[in-house]
């Protein structure tokens, strides 16, 4: 398999974690988002939507969207599972993942921040306030959802799941912008539990070949 | 089952479509987003994250996030299926759904538009330009993905799927803001095919009990 991705892309990071958790080898193909490589003709031939990450299977099929990729990996390489077996548990994990992937991250990715500054002409300070607002309020919602679930080591249960694949990159991302993580005990405990695992460590941006520090 | 939702919420509309496609009866519980009812204590007891929609199962479990709810419905009421059986087909449908639910809709929902106007003090015109920019560029990405897939009646294949549950509300939403839908032949053909089906018609905002026109 080949993963078209970028070291600092949170969505790419999610997929790298899943690949590492499942012990799957892959070729790392960097797509430099800041240099606009995702908008090149070469990349359009890989991913028509021009989005990163994209997983290229051994038979040459290209799959986009990080959560769709992770579910594909989970269905084709079931061990260790990244979703529970029962429908309610699966819904809980997917809803947690989507709280990050549909409520927080879309507001904070590179093209949105660029639009705010270049097209809307908002100040750097207003952009950073926007950023922190959505990460903080989104993580408060995540924490509120965790608080109603039984005690667990990770976001859901005692093994890492799709939810943790989404949570960890969001925390990394928030740290770069000095987001306040206080008062989020279960969320940060899940993050800490993840970061003790070699799979999460190996997948992090600082270990990527295109890492620029 | 009970669905906590709002007639004009795109994410609520997605779930209503899925319930109608599967022929499942449900109680319609309106949560008025513009009046802030989702932020009430009463609703926090239902949905800790305060987001709409939320599905309350017959055993009293509450599930949030529209795509998670629809997958839950598909797993617990498999007919008619809203996802293909094979992993690659499932990944294609999920990726299309996420192109809308993770790339377009999060930038255009009520709380984000409110933040732009109230907190960032952008003009009404700049807000509308922002809105159209993300819907248009997102649908162009959707169209580009459809163009590489085999010919089909709906977004993927010849039966409606999770992708169509997400597409149709996004088009409704875009129409309210006069988005340009030209040059999106496969996308709009899928939309038209959906709107011929009674399930999509029944689920639309104008048929909701809390519809304000």
Automatic annotation (TrEMBL), chains A, B:
Give the protein family: Belongs to the GST superfamily. Zeta family.
Task: Say if the entry is tagged with keyword Isomerase.
Answer: yes
User: Which protein are we looking at?
Assistant: Maleylacetoacetate isomerase
For this record, the Gene Ontology CC terms, alphabetical, are: cytoplasm
Q: Which PANTHER family match?
A: MALEYLACETOACETATE ISOMERASE (PTHR42673:SF4)
Give the domain of life. Answer: Bacteria
Q: Which InterPro entries match?
A: Glutathione-S-Trfase_C-like, Glutathione-S-Trfase_C_sf, Glutathione_S-Trfase, Glutathione_S-Trfase_N, GST_Zeta, GST_Zeta_C, GST_Zeta_N, Thioredoxin-like_sf
Under the GO molecular function aspect, what terms does this record hold? glutathione transferase activity; maleylacetoacetate isomerase activity
Which GO biological process entries does UniProt record here? glutathione metabolic process; L-phenylalanine catabolic process
Positions of the GST C-terminal domain: 86-213
Q: What is its EC number?
A: 5.2.1.2
Q: Which Pfam family, any one, appears in the UniProt record?
A: GST_N_2
In terms of NCBIfam families, this protein maps to: maiA
Principal EC category? isomerase
Transmembrane regions: none
Q: Does the keyword Repressor apply?
A: no
Keywords, A to Z, come to: Isomerase
**Where do the GST N-terminal domain residues begin and end?**
1-81
């Amino acid at each position: 398999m080949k993963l078209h991705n970028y070291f600092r892309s949170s969505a790419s990071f999610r997929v790298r974690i899943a690949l590492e958790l499942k012990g799957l080898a892959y070729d790392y193909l960097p797509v430099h988002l800041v240099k606009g490589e995702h908008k090149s003709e070469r990349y359009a031939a890989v991913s028509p939507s021009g989005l990163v990450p994209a997983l290229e299977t051994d038979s040459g099929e290209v799959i986009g969207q990080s959560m769709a990729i992770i579910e594909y990996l989970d269905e084709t390489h079931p061990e260790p599972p990244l979703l529970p077996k029962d429908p309610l548990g699966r819904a809980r994990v997917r809803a947690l993942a989507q709280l990050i992937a549909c409520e927080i991250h879309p507001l904070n990715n590179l093209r949105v921040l660029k639009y705010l500054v270049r097209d809307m002409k908002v100040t750097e300070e207003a952009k950073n306030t926007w950023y922190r607002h959505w990460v903080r309020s989104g993580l408060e919602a995540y924490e509120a959802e965790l608080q109603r679930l039984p005690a667990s080591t990770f976001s859901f249960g005692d093994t890492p799941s799709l939810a943790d694949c989404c949570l960890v990159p969001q925390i990394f991302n928030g740290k770069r912008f000095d987001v306040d993580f206080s008062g989020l005990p279960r969320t940060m405990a899940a993050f800490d539990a993840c970061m003790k695992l070699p799979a999460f460590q190996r997948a992090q941006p600082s270990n990527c070949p295109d890492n620029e520090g």
